[in-house]
Write a sequence for this structure.
């Protein structure tokens, strides 16, 4: 397999973190970060940041707000 390189890995890192890449692209990113510590560190930071955002955004909308929104959409 060919190394995708730092530029490609970094350009696709966000999509990789969100599971939005094709299998081959994921494999390429994973292979690259195994052998490139700067890109591996960037991946680690991205994973930690994504985890923090996910854990901070765990609130749910009140049921009354959901009903209001649905009624508003039905009137449109």
């Amino acid at each position: 397999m060919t190394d995708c390189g730092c530029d490609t890995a970094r350009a696709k890192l966000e999509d990789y973190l969100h599971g939005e890449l094709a299998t081959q692209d994921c494999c390429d990113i994973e292979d690259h970060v195994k052998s490139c510590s700067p890109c591996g560190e960037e991946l680690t930071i991205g994973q930690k940041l994504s985890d923090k955002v996910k854990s901070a955004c765990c609130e749910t909308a009140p049921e009354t707000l959901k009903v209001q929104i649905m009624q508003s959409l039905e009137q449109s």
